[in-house]
Write a structure and sequence with these properties.
Blueprint (H helix, E strand, L loop, with lengths): L3 E6 L3 E6 L2 E6 L2 H13 L7 E5 L2 E5 L4 E2 L11 H15 L14 H17 L5 H11 L9 E3 L8 E4 L2 E5 L6 E3 L1 H9 L6 H8 L5 H21 L10 H7 L2
Antiparallel strand pairs: 1-2, 2-3, 3-5, 4-5, 6-8, 7-10, 8-9
Helix pairs in contact: 2-6, 3-4, 3-7, 4-7, 5-7, 7-8
Organism: Actinacidiphila bryophytorum
InterPro entries: AGP_Transferase, Aminoglycoside_PTrfase, Kinase-like_dom_sf
Protein name: Aminoglycoside phosphotransferase
Length: 248
């Protein structure tokens, strides 16, 4: 029998791998509902749904390897990064899903959330005040009206799989919905600024690089405390804290 490997686990959800099957256990069935619905709609390669018995969703592994990892240099070619950009463009040009994204809110709500998070980061001594202040200023460019598209919502670099220069699968669709296209592109290139031009070359026109860089700061500021509280290390080399420091 294949060993059971814990891919990720915290108080909200866990993902296990047994051979070529991934088992996602989630306390929030709305997330699983969104994932199953998105998998049926998106025009890009995705995992096959094998079965669902709440709170568990079973998915087949996709071929290939992750485009990269946060905090590590990517071994994928510039062509593979461009192919990822082209796949994201196909997603963003797909018809809008009937539900809204779980993460993104209107500019006023997002600004209020960011202000509150910045206060907590400084008050609890998680990040230095000057680092937070500088990145709060950079992040302002992302807080603007945007036209919704079909977004992945959590397009981390290790959620995109490639074989050679071809995208073979995009995984983890639980945050999918209507959202900001540039948030997806920023999440994909977070910590991999050297591949931003490759992604944009595959994605095509309509990309504001200043907004992507703003999303790097905004996403990192909003994520650091959650990561710490759930047992992750955002201060590891190349991860969120380094992203924030690079804006200085």
């Amino acid at each position: 029998m294949d060993e059971v490997a814990v891919v990720v686990a915290h108080s909200e959800r866990a993902t296990l791998r047994v051979g070529d099957v991934f088992l996602k256990v989630d306390t929030d069935q709305a997330r699983i509902d969104a994932e199953v619905a998105a998998l049926a709609l998106v025009p890009v390669p995705t995992p096959e749904v094998l079965w669902r018995r709440p709170p568990v969703l079973a998915l087949a592994a996709v071929p290939g390897r992750a485009l990269g990892r946060l905090g590590e240099p990517s071994a994928a070619s510039p062509t593979a990064w461009a192919a990822a950009g082209a796949a994201v463009r196909r997603l963003h040009e797909a018809p809008l899903p009937p539900w809204h994204g779980r993460r993104r809110r209107d500019p006023g709500e997002l600004a209020a959330e960011l202000d509150g998070e910045c206060e907590l980061l400084v008050a609890h001594g998680i990040l230095p005040a000057d680092l937070v202040t500088r990145n709060r200023h950079v992040a302002e460019a992302a807080i603007r009206p945007w036209t919704p598209v079909f977004t992945h919502g959590d397009l981390q670099v290790d959620h995109v799989f490639v074989d050679g220069d071809e995208v073979t699968g995009i995984i983890d669709w639980s945050e999918a919905g209507r959202g900001d296209a540039l948030f997806d592109l920023a999440t994909l290139t977070l910590g991999h600024e050297e591949h931003l031009a490759d992604v944009v070359s595959g994605y095509g026109a309509g990309v504001d690089l200043d907004v992507i860089r703003a999303w790097w700061s905004l996403r990192s500021l909003l994520g650091v405390r959650w990561l710490v509280e759930h047992g992750f290390d955002p201060s590891a080399p190349g991860c969120e804290v380094d992203v924030l420091k690079s804006r200085m």
